[in-house]
Amino acid sequence: MKILVFDDAPAVGLRLGSYLADIVAARAELVLGLPTGRTPLPLYAALRQITTTRGLSWAGVRTFNLDEFVGVAPDAPGSYRAYMQRELFGPVGIPADHVGFLDGTAADLDAECRRYEAAIAAAGGMDVLVLGIGTNGHIGFNEPAPALHARTHRAALQAATRASNAGQFGGDVTCVPAEALSMGMATILEAKEILLMATGAGKAPVVRQLRDGGITTALPASFLQLHGNVSLWLDAAAADV
Ligand code: GLP
Q: Is the model's pLDDT at 216 over the cut of 80?
């Protein structure tokens, strides 16, 4: 794994934003996998800014987000779909028909997961996937467990994960759904290039385990060690340097 360390979270966002903007500009067609959470906010701010200053076109970009809450409608304020619309899709002008998203209100959630896998495959797979990481080592909503899921699935959220998502729901952890839909480990590992962001001292222990530990389902992110093209984009606090 390649490790890149920058001074602080805004610097990580700027440098990764610039890296991604160059890819968007260079390729006529690009399939991009995207995360939510607090960590990518500086990245999306940087991409909005670069898009304006460079006049970057997103016309050839199709996106697939990692996950969505079960029972939260796409246009509800707490949804990840609404977050993405606000932070990136709306401001840079990615049309709805280029956006792939899980629908946590689908009548048949298992069928919805299968639809999503098929949509990613039909798009030719993800060229570049940006990831965050939970303090417990989850990626997407692949939580630590005795066994992990290969494909897009329905996931029960652990207490710590619900707590860290409370901000999406007015700070009230009881409003955070107990379940989500998430890309699986194989879905993630099939992306051609993976860029994992981690910032802040709270992520330093999990980054250390990811860097130095073995591969274990107790740390889902450790499976990224099996992928040949992964880079970690860290600030000094998360890198513990
Ligand atoms: C959330 C998301 C993940 C995200 C992680 C870290 O639960 N499902 O995709 O990477 O938790 O969130 P944050 O960046 O806010 O620390």
A: yes
Residue 241, pLDDT score: 74
CATH number of the domain bearing residue 203: 3.40.50.1360
What total of structural domains would you count in the chain?
1
Active site residue 68: no
Domain that holds residue 214: 2-239
Nearest ligand 1 atom to alpha carbon 67: 8
In percent, how much of the chain has pLDDT > 70?
100
> How many angstroms does the Cα of residue 165 sit away from the middle of ligand 1?
7
- Return the pLDDT at 71: 96
CB neighbour list of residue 138: distance below 8 Å, 6 or more residues apart: 144, 158, 161, 220, 221
| 17 Cα: distance to centroid of ligand 1 (angstroms) | 18
CA distance 241 to 236: 5
What pLDDT digit, counting tens, does each position of 71-91 carry?
A: 999 999 999 999 999 999 999
Model's pTM, two decimal places? 0.97
Any bridge partners for residue 232, and if so which? 3, 196
Name residues whose C-beta falls within 8 Å of residue 59's C-beta, 6 or more positions apart in sequence.
none
Concatenated DSSP letters for 137-203? Answer: S-BTTB---SS--SSSEEEEPPHHHHHHTGGGGTT-GGGS-SEEEE--HHHHHTSSEEEEEE-SGGG
The burial class, CB within 10 Å (0-12 / 13-18 / 19+), for 191 is buried
- Nearest C-alpha to atom 3 of ligand 1 is from which residue? 140
